[in-house]
Amino acid sequence: MHKVVTSGLAMCAAATLLLNPATADAASTSGSSSVQFPSSWYEPTPVREKPTWLPDSLGENATVILVPGTSDFTPISASDIGGSGSPMGGDQYGRTVDVGFYDAPGGGASFGPKVVVVQYPAAFGIIVGGKEYDLSGTGTYNSSVDIGTAEGVADAEQAWADRGGSGTIILNGYSQSGPIAMNVAYLLHQKYASGDPDAIPDSDIVVVVGADSRFPNTGIETIIPSFVPGAYTNGARDESDTGDIHVISYCVRGDSVCGMGNPLAHPLATAFYFLPGATIHGQKGNLVNQYEVASTREVGNTTYVVLDGGNPWGIFLRSLGIAVPPEFDDALDALVPVPEPGEASTIAGVRVPTPRDIQVALADALGLQVPVTDPDALAAQGRTWQAPDAAGESNSESVSNESLPRAATTSGAHETFENYLAGAEAGNGVSKAAPESDATSPRAHDGSTGGTTGSTTGTPTSTPQTSTTQIPTTQTATAPSTSAAPVAEPSVSSAPEGDGAPTTSSTGPTSAR
Question: Which residues of the chain have pLDDT under 70?
Answer without folding.
Answer: 1-34, 390-513
